[in-house]
Amino acid sequence: MNGVEKMSEKMSEQIEEKISKALDTEMTRRQFMKISGKGLMGLTVSASLLSLFGCTQQQIDNGEVATWAMPQGLLVVNAAKCVGCQRCEINCTLVNDGVASTYISRVKVQRNITLNGEHGLYGNKDWVYFPDTCRQCKDPACGNACPQGAIYANDNGIRVVDQEKCIGCGACVQACPWHMPTVNPETHKSSKCIACGACVQGCPAGALSIIPWDEVTAAAQEVHK
User: Fold this and answer.
1) Cα–chain-centroid distance for residue 97?
2) Residue 220 pLDDT more than 80?
3) For 21-45, how does the pLDDT look when each residue is reduced to its tens digit (9 = 90+)?
4) I need a surface site. Which of 63, 88, 132, 204 has the fewest CB within 10 A?
5) Domain locations along the chain
6) Which InterPro entries does the annotation name (predicted)?
């Protein structure tokens, strides 16, 4: 085999390796898309993924951990770590709107929500905090309800609001099962999560984290080695 053939073979191996990694990443992404925006309760997670997520199996069993599939990685929400300080909400609006406002934040800190059937809205349990945000639905109710067609998927697959088209009618807010969009009372325009990561950067307790897909894939494959 001459030098050119060796170089060609090496390039083929490198390309094959890249394709293989891409396929593995997409497979992992598809798996997590099925449970995106839902709790992981009932799932047994490998030690490598638990370490990556920064949680325990007990927290998963308690329904305190949920994941959202995003273009840049997996958003992991751990209610056990959330202290309800709302800094995620404040940082979201500081970055995106230039003001500190929990009301128009694209991430919402829910209080005393049902996690595992024991916590209720008016139960006598201690308060439970849970950072919540847009699920980036494949068939978004918010977008379908918008009379102006102002909600669309950008180049990264994130559902965003076209501020020029939005008339602030609030149809998207009412249509969303989780009421994630919010109409700004000053601008009269709707807004929703654009997966910028500002909430993660603002969380001092580590309740929010975005894990790159290659790291998720690598950890998921550890159990198969």
Assistant:
1) 20
2) no
3) 433 444 455 555 555 555 555 556 6
4) 204
5) 1-79+105-133+207-225
6) 4Fe4S_Fe-S-bd, 4Fe4S_Fe_S_CS, RnfB_subfamily
User: What does residue 13 show for φ and ψ, rounded to 5 degrees?
Assistant: -65, -40
Q: Which residues contact 104 (CB under 8 A, 6 or more apart)?
A: 93, 97, 182, 184, 191
For the chain, the C-alpha Rg in angstroms (whole number) is 20
Angle CA 198–201–206, to nearest 5: 130
119-142: string of b/e by CB count within 10 Å (b at 16+)? beeeeeeeebbbbbbbbbbeebbb
Q: Which residues of 18-41 are buried (b: 16+ CB within 10 A; e: fewer)?
A: eeeeeebbeebbeebeeebbebbb
C-alpha span between 128 and 151 (Å, rounded): 32
- 134/185 Cα distance (integer angstroms): 20
* Helix %, strand %, coil % of the chain (to 5): 35, 15, 50
Query: In whole angstroms, what is the distance from residue 150 CA to residue 164 CA?
Result: 8
Of the candidates 132, 129, 135, 130, the residue with the CA atom closest to the CA atom of residue 176: 135
Taken in order 160, 166, 169, 171, the sign of the CA dihedral is: negative
pTM over the 0.70 mark: yes
Cβ atoms within 10 Å of 17's Cβ, excluding its own: 10
